[in-house]
Write a structure and sequence with these properties.
The chain has 21 helices and 23 strands. It is of the alpha+beta class and 654 residues long.
Length: 654
């Protein structure tokens, strides 16, 4: 123990060292989500140029060496010297936190990269990083390693041949050559394997985000190319948010043909609001929110304002047109949002994001602005489109009646449940620990696996809930039918949060809800059904990090008294080589019930040896799209998805 504590014990992390010491503070995590966040930070800089009217082309390339290149045709990062730093502006932007044009209101009226740390953070967390700035017919270049300059700024004149080649790569050979359109910035970086748990960029995730950006910035062309696979795509949507909503509802039966598009502005507070919405005959709602093209997946004040305006506008318009006959109470928020697909996009001069990863908008004034603007615009729309209003209200009234029926079903279930008197669902084997942070709930399929799990668990902190067969597909079913399902009732009662209006994540009885299914096709299907339920009815449990997937082994390899458990076929082959080929027994576990209690504990349930995958919602719209493809009514979309990803499947039993 240190006996004295003085100034010599104080450490100052200068330059970009704080980023490398605590990367999660800047990019959220060092897993796949943080890896992709690096790309988003660089792309967001290019989008800011586009928002200012200086850029209409952004290109993203994934290199076969694990690198990523982002190039735009904006103005190019300034390269002249900054006297106070005795360095070029380019070097300052790339090596100093909170440095950039986002703090100068004359440079950017609207910006997503508000904190000014994005591109410097990418530099700090890359094993190598190069930048080329094209301005005034000159090429300005620098190189870095882990945030440190390795090649000082150099400037050279670009040859006519180089310019023409770059122009044709951007615009093709049919567009007349114009040197003025050749300004911009090209950044190439390779994430540092010392920092990141994975180095594999997911093309689908990036493609989805870039498509979003193209929808939100009409007229801008965004390209992505994957040199590893040859995949590529180009996005440009003149219809903007309208086309975005149409994309969300593609493959669904819509309630009204036209996308409702609303656009309004509060000039005094410099807030522009764009909203697109369309109702479908499904039961789930999808509402995606953006601020200056940043995906605010946790919502915020703009979403609160929209919800309030929608509920108020529909109730008032319905009442005025005498469309609420038979209802004793006004329509509630859940009623008017059933089947809704909406995009809410804000452009605001000074957004207040919560955290560097910008997942929630905090400006309190925005709530009232959005509420007022959207309410006025919707009221005018409903006045001019009575048939659309009638169709939406009819669905909302049906949702209200179904909600009331579901409420009565929940109350009946509560009265019948043993929960009120002494405990929980009869099939639940609960744990003795009462602190939810220490408690785990294993959801297993079938009595056989449930029996092994109950025998093998630690009764102190692990609870077991066996489910019979496959639960209802909540993506297709009516909420009333869902809440009458016995397996779902048991699940809701065991977790303790309630659902719908009764949902309260703070009442969760377990902070580890672990899906433990067989390692076969049926097990994967059951796991997907359960994940769909959690995503649609208890999404906050996923957002809080409470939902996990257990990883049971596929093989037991034994020789004499030695044994190894393999989770993949490749791992099994490693153990075969380790043991030699004689006298080996191999057991293939097709189901959890084939393991005895001790084996299940040792491999899948013991905290010291098990592997759990935490479920998170990296991108709400992407997650929503995947759930709809896998569990919805659009068979063709599901077929296309399976065909595209079939080669990625391993350990498939048919």
């Amino acid at each position: 123990m240190v006996e004295t504590y003085d100034a010599s014990h104080i450490t100052v992390l200068e330059g970009l060292r704080p980023v490398r010491e605590r990367p999660a503070m800047y990019i959220g995590s060092t897993d796949t989500r943080g890896l992709h966040h690096l790309v988003y930070e660089v792309v967001d800089n290019a989008i800011d140029e586009a928002l200012g009217g200086y850029c209409d082309l952004i290109e993203v390339s994934l290199g076969s060496d694990g690198s990523c290149t982002v190039e735009d045709n904006g103005r190019g990062i300034p390269v002249d010297r900054m006297a106070q730093y005795d360095k070029s502006a380019l070097e300052v932007v790339l090596t100093v936190l909170h440095a950039g044009g986002k703090f100068d209101k004359n440079s950017y009226q609207v910006s997503g990269g508000l904190h000014g740390v994005g591109v410097s953070v990418v530099n700090a967390l890359s094993s190598w990083f190069t930048v080329s700035v094209f301005r005034d017919g000159l090429v300005h270049e620098m190189a870095f390693e882990r945030g440190d300059v390795t090649t000082q700024l150099s400037t050279r004149k670009e040859t006519d041949g180089e310019m023409k080649k770059r122009f044709e790569a951007r615009y093709g050979t049919e567009v007349p050559f114009t040197p003025r359109r050749l300004t911009g910035t090209r950044i190439t970086f390779q994430p540092d394997p010392v920092i990141f748990e994975t180095m594999d960029f997911d093309y689908d995730v990036l493609e989805h985000r870039l498509r979003e950006l193209a929808f939100l910035n009409s007229g801008i062309t965004i390209r992505i190319r994957d040199d590893r696979t040859g995949d590529g795509a180009t996005f440009c949507y003149e219809g903007g948010i309208r086309e975005f909503v149409a994309h969300l509802t593609s493959g669904k039966e819509v309630l009204h043909d036209d996308v409702i598009y609303l656009e309004s502005e509060d000039a005094e507070n410099k807030v522009e609001v764009g909203v697109g919405l369309q109702y479908t005959r499904t039961f789930a709602d999808t509402m995606l929110t953006f601020v200056n093209s940043v995906n605010t997946r946790e919502g915020g004040t703009h979403l609160e304002g929209f919800r309030s305006a929608l509920t108020r506008a529909l109730n008032n318009a319905a009442k005025k047109n005498n469309l609420l006959k038979g209802l004793s109470t006004p329509l509630k928020g859940d009623d008017v949002r059933e089947g809704l697909n909406a995009i809410i996009s804000l452009k605001i001069a000074n957004p207040q994001f919560e955290g560097q990863t910008k997942t929630r908008l905090g400006n309190s004034i925005v709530r009232g602005i959005v509420d007022s603007l959207v309410y006025q615009a919707l009221s005018e729309y409903f006045e001019e489109n009575p048939r659309t209003l009638a169709a939406i209200v009819e669905k909302a009234v049906m949702a209200s009646r179904a909600r009331e029926a579901a409420r009565k079903a929940r109350e009946l279930a509560r009265r019948k449940s043993v929960l009120e008197s002494a405990g929980l669902p009869g099939k639940l084997a609960d744990c003795s620990e009462k602190n939810p942070e220490k408690c785990e709930l294993y959801i297993v399929e079938g009595d056989s696996a449930g029996g092994s799990a109950k025998q093998g668990r630690s009764r102190i902190f692990q609870a077991i809930l066996p489910l019979r067969g496959k639960i209802l597909n909540v993506e297709k079913a009516n909420p009333h039918k869902i809440l009458k399902n016995a397996e779902i009732q048991a699940l809701i009662s065991a977790i303790g949060t309630g659902v719908g209006e009764d949902f309260d994540a703070d009442r969760a009885r377990y902070h580890h809800v672990i899906l433990m299914t067989d390692a076969d096709v049926d097990g994967a299907h059951i796991r997907t059904l359960l994940l769909t339920f959690f995503y649609r009815y208890m999404p906050e449990l996923i957002e809080r990090g409470y939902v996990y997937i257990a990883q049971p082994p596929l093989y037991r390899v034994a020789k004499g008294k030695q044994e190894r458990y393999a989770f993949t076929e490749e791992e099994m082959r490693v153990y075969l080589r380790e043991f030699g080929e004689k006298g080996i027994s191999i057991q293939r576990y097709k189901g959890l019930g084939e393991m005895n209690a001790q084996q299940l504990w040792d491999t899948t349930m013991a905290p010291e040896t098990r592997v759990l995958k935490q479920v998170n919602i990296e991108n709400a719209s992407y997650a929503n799209e995947i759930f709809e493809k896998l569990m919805g009514d659009d068979v063709k979309a599901r077929y296309d998805f399976i065909r595209r990803h079939a080669k990625e499947v391993t350990n498939l039993d048919i």
